[in-house]
Design goal:
Length: 204
Amino acid sequence: MNINAPASDKQRSTLIVWLIVYAGLSLFGCEKSVEQKHDAVNSTPQDLTQTEITEIEQKPTELTHRIKGKPVSVTLRVPKSHVKPGETLDLSVLFEIAPLWEIRAFDALPADTATQLTLNLPTGFQAAKVWESPSPDRSLAPVGHPAYMGKPVFHRHIQVTSDAEPGKQEITCHVSYQACDEFRCLKPAEIKLKVTVQVEKENQ
């Protein structure tokens, strides 16, 4: 009987060692998991101004700013890529807003939450005084302030004058908005969209 006792003690000692090792690995793994979760919660929000702008179908007359997982995308569009002095461009800014989300109206307060569209035009391009905008809806939030939902489109007429220089000219639109749902608002976003048009000589 005593011959097998040392072997049994050795087995028990080996088992204890393995249990200690397993417990240590498990504890380390749990701590690591908690740290990773903590880092994720406290990660820096994505800066919308630094995201990549993607051109749809390589069209010079249309540019869309789309961010995966975000509720709003914005498109700047002109109807044609070639213009002559004396012609008018119907420039448009199109929003695609996810269901149950909205953006604030032009006159929202405070001002940094309002939707704003600012054009930067080359020499010889003159914009109409105001944007043609759709009527806002009533917000889903309890206060019921004016807001845009769905696919609102904003238009601005651009007159090409005789001062426009022949060649490629860039039209830039600075867009700012704040996306909200019924319970929360995201950080206000500011993006810049740009399209290129070719100005032809008057005698062409």
